[in-house]
């Protein structure tokens, strides 16, 4: 995972996620379109493409991202803090299925070239698109028109990443962060448990050593709450 600016070269990435990208220049939108046409996956959300670099509003949202996302946003409904809506999947998308809660903002949008993955379940815009997918060239662009519950985002991003050939460094519990770092001919796994409860990760077949204890490891290993392990791949 890398956090980059809008001046970054996107060609080295498989998936680019740009949530609530309020300010979008036309040159960057063109590079996003080129990225998608070349096989990349691009994800953006409500509140994206409202103004250019001079803060001048576009005539319609998501501005210059309209072509790549295949949607046009007519209006936006801002919900009160205690209000919720629902998004209803039209068909399963990986583990995304059934219904999910959403809130805060709900785009009232039209799917022009995009395929509708989910619709709203309530309010006067029930049945309107809430989440879309647009195939462009060899890649896909996704538009999330609301603020869904975390489970939906987890399922959606897992599916998009898997479709791009991006897999976790290690399989394990949610809330466990794993980073691989290499130096010359040595490789290390930094495993951080962000939960206060015990979590587990599964090591693939091979030889491993815990750099803090010197213990050799294999199979599934536990991590205490808020624990960290530095593991060398032997």
From TrEMBL:
Gene3D superfamilies: 3.40.50.880, Golgi alpha-mannosidase II (2.60.40.1180). Residues 2-166 form the Beta-galactosidase trimerisation domain. Pfam families: Glyco_hydro_42C, Glyco_hydro_42M. Residues 175-233 form the Beta-galactosidase C-terminal domain. InterPro entries: Beta_galactosidase_C (IPR013739), Beta_galactosidase_Trimer (IPR013738), Class_I_gatase-like (IPR029062), Glyco_hydro_42 (IPR003476), Glyco_hydro_b (IPR013780). GO terms for biological process: galactose metabolic process. GO terms for molecular function: beta-galactosidase activity. This is Beta-galactosidase. It comes from marine sediment metagenome. The lineage of its organism: unclassified sequences, metagenomes, ecological metagenomes.
């Amino acid at each position: 995972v890398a956090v980059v600016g809008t001046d970054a070269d996107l060609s080295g990435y498989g998936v680019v996620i740009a949530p609530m990208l309020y300010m979008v220049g036309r040159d960057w939108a063109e590079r996003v379109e080129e990225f998608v046409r070349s096989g990349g996956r691009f994800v953006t959300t409500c509140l994206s493409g409202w103004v250019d670099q001079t803060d001048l509003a576009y005539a319609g949202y998501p501005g210059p991202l309209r072509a790549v996302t295949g949607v046009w946003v007519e209006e936006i409904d801002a919900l009160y803090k205690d209000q919720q809506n629902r998004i209803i999947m039209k068909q399963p998308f990986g583990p995304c299925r059934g219904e999910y809660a959403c809130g805060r903002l709900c785009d009232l949008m039209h799917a022009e070239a995009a395929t509708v993955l989910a619709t709203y379940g309530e309010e006067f815009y029930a049945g309107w698109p809430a989440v879309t997918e647009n195939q462009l060239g060899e890649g896909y662009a996704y538009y999330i028109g609301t603020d869904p519950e975390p489970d939906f985002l987890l399922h959606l991003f897992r599916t998009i990443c898997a479709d791009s050939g991006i897999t976790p460094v290690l399989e394990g519990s949610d809330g466990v962060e794993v980073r691989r770092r290499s130096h010359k001919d040595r490789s290390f796994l930094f495993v951080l448990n962000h939960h206060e409860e015990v979590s587990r990760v599964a090591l693939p077949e091979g030889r491993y050593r815990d750099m803090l204890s010197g213990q050799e490891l294999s199979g599934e290993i536990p991590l205490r709450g808020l624990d960290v392990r530095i593991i060398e791949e032997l």
